[in-house]
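Look over this record before class:
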Amino acid sequence: MSDVYAQKPAFLSKQRIIAPAHYNRWLVPPAALAIHLCIGMAYGFSVFWLPLSKALGVDHAIACPVDSGFWLQLFSRQCDWKISTLGWMYTLFFILLGCSAALWGGWLERVGPRRVGLLSAFCWCGGMLISALGVYLHQFWIMLIGSGVIGGIGLGLGYISPVSTLIKWFPDRRGLATGLAIMGFGGGAMIGSPLAVDLMKYFATPTNNGVAATFVCMACIYAVFMTCGALMYRIPALGWKPAHWQEPQPSESSRLMTRQHVHVKKVWGIPQFWLVWFVLCMNISAGIGILGIASPMLQEVFAGSLIGIQLSFNALNTEQLARIAAIAAGFTALLSLFNIGGRLFWASFSDQLGRKVTYSVFLILGAILYISIPMAAQAGHKLIFVASICIIISMYGGGFATLPAYLADLFGTQMVGAIHGRLLTAWATAGILGPVLVNHMRDYQLSLGMATSQVYNQTMYILAGLLCLGLLANLSIRPVASKHFMTESELALEQASMQRQQQDSQQALHNAPAFSAPMRVVDQTVTVEQAAVMLSGHVQYVYLALAWLAVLIPISWGIYRTLLSVQAFF
């Protein structure tokens, strides 16, 4: 008996999660959403900045000495942190996301998504717990290590964990499948931000703003969701295809879609990889740049006209500033809806027109919209101004959702998860380039004495220029040369290894006493094979409904809370 158990695959092994025949592939997207909705809170961490900037004073900030620098704030327990200092955690999120995805993308392909998903949950939730300790001790360096570094690693691992799995389950709908999962990353802040606000209010006391307790509570909630999502991951058996689906024949419109596969070790030397890297970097730099300034830009450009009075931003009093800040908050909530919706819409759109055409639409239409923003601002057309930014943010999200399918088209599906991880270094680069460019341009324009309503004009033209550069790179992408693909013998060796692992796994599970014992179901003794058939039928639809409800209920609540915030804008 011990020999039988010795052959049984480990619980976290890739072989253990190979799906049985007739497994419903629509059980996999909710698993991916469960993880992405949690790690997507990285976008909403700014909700903690203001309370943390008053962590000691509670109702007011205790300022550090004028001559104190960043290093003093890392260790000081006598003064509150500046919001600009807290922003370094946000920067670390996306630097570590790109780096960890690049470093461990190959490991994901070897060990499978379950182990990576669980490690992501451990890092992300563990990082929040460490940050709670940092808040309690008022030590910013602990927070940077917790959420910034450890949480950032969990962010990267969780982001890439479902990509290759979904593409293999949905070869007929690559864009839709990855769009569903990555939509969750955009929606994480939509759920997490109002939840964090409610929790901070609940835990707040006259001497404590409740941030530390909120971190602990959210870490526990996220741990449950992410663990369940990771345990639900399944991968298709080698050679699996959807019923009645035939791989499309090559045509002029789909000639970028290859049937061959590139090994991840060779991808650094392929020109198409760097062209896609540059396209992604330019699209994200422009998108993340405007996303970070959208709220202050609306307030400074339209100022008093947002509340029906013709006053400049600097002439507004405290009460008027509070009113336009509420409107700007509604605008930010509206952008989050377009960020989420764009991920699903544009990814599905790419299944019809192709990934290269879709990215060309992003870059051409985006450049036009960036140029239109200063014109709309100067003419006082709020609707055009808002609509332009909303569409831009939808394409920003759509770029992320369409990317995995673009990579699968170019490099094949065998190593797409690892290749996607390496490409996310473009995100890490853009996470620095976009905000730095936008913020420095704003400060430079103000130093020249320019009015606050006009300080963003040159920035919009520069962002449009970035998209034009990205367009040139996208138009230069051609099918990958045959010399870069795995040979038939290399691919056969890779697949033979996977086949042996799958056969060993199935044999071990079949022989395992814990699973081979008969079960009593409604007074009828059935074997494991019969139970599997039952599960693949009506019972599996129950699990399918429960899985989707588990993610759709939080999403619906987040949309409801967002719509309440959007009301203030109108």
